[in-house]
């Protein structure tokens, strides 16, 4: 009798308290076992007959906050046509994976429905990163001289790149979900990249004549840094006076003596390495010009009168 009464009570309670609606959801990014780098999405979808009120993400137990929910998902709507709002069931948030540090991590997504019930899932992923959380300056990434390979389908490798002064090999894999190549391996020995000397360009050789004003324009560049100083010097030939020798363009007046003037442009990079380049200016004697003579104006005079005539000449 007691057993029958107890069973009846349990049955009534079951009828009075309908079962909670089932939450169905999926974490699309990051995928289980994937490698993350840079900035990309944490994304997926969630549905419930009761309606979804929140989606929250955690990495290693630390909350990232609520994820925006309700983006269009026609594919989910087609798969679950009888579930309310299934066509607007997407959730996504951009995340900088380097903030989590290099190594393996676990992301947990907790979905809460209108009735208060929750469901959660875990995904394990790995983060690879450079020394800094963010490489914000494009000049800190140098690929000149690096070798790009495709060791297998869906993979790229950049061998010998310089990132923030370190020589590294960067490997990328095609990510189907985001439709792009993502870095999944960074290999470096931790040693700073050897500095490369700058390059000075003094310009092409010139020819001129004595007494002529001459302007020379040079340039310089550095593939792994920048030019901090440049200077013109005369190293050979008839002496000239250089104007603005610390500028890229310098001028002088060709000497009265014929000969070859050799000028040198020296540049220095931010690590103290230098390079120089010479330019030759061949100075020839200016061609001789005939003098000019003026005998004065024509005159009309009377016979027997005294006449004075004045002339001039210059060269």
Description of the structure:
With 315 residues, the chain is mostly beta strands. The protein folds into three domains: 104 residues, Immunoglobulins (Immunoglobulin-like, Sandwich); 50 residues, no CATH class; 86 residues, Sandwich (Immunoglobulin-like). The chain has a five-stranded mixed sheet with strand order 2-9-8-4-5, with no helix packed on it. Strands 10, 11, 12, 13 and 14 form a five-stranded antiparallel sheet that branches. The N terminus is likely disordered.
Quaternary structure classification? single chain
The CATH C-level class name of the largest domain: Mainly Beta
How much of the sequence is in beta strands? over 45%
Number of distinct beta strands: 24
């Amino acid at each position: 009798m007691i057993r029958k009464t107890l069973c009846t009570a349990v049955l009534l309670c079951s009828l009075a308290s309908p079962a909670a609606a089932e939450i169905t959801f999926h974490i699309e990014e990051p995928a289980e076992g994937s490698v993350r780098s840079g900035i990309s999405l944490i994304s997926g979808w969630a549905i419930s007959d009761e309606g979804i009120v929140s989606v929250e993400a955690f990495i290693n137990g630390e909350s990232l906050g609520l994820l925006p929910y309700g983006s269009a998902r026609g594919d989910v709507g087609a798969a679950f046509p009888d579930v309310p709002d299934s066509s607007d069931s997407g959730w996504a948030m951009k995340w900088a994976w380097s903030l989590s540090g290099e190594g393996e991590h676990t992301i947990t997504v907790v979905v809460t429905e209108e009735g208060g019930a929750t469901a959660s899932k875990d995904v394990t992923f790995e983060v690879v990163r450079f020394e800094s959380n963010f490489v914000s300056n494009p000049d800190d990434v140098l690929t000149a001289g690096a070798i790009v390979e495709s060791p297998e389908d869906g993979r790229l490798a950049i061998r010998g790149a310089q990132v923030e002064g370190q020589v590294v090999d960067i490997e990328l894999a095609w990510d189907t979900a985001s439709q792009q190549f993502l870095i999944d391996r960074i290999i470096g020995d931790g040693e700073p990249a050897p500095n490369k000397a700058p390059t000075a360009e003094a310009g092409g050789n010139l020819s001129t004549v004595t007494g002529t004003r001459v302007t020379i324009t040079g340039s310089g560049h550095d593939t792994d840094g920048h030019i901090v100083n440049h200077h013109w010097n005369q190293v050979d030939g008839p002496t000239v006076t250089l104007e603005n020798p610390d500028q890229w363009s310098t001028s002088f007046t060709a000497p009265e003596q014929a000969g070859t003037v050799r000028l040198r442009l020296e540049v220095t990079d931010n690590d103290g390495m230098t390079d120089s380049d010479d330019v030759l200016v061949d100075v020839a004697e200016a061609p001789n010009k005939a003098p000019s003579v003026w005998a004065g104006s024509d005159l009309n005079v009377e016979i027997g009168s005294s006449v004075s005539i004045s002339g001039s000449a210059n060269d």
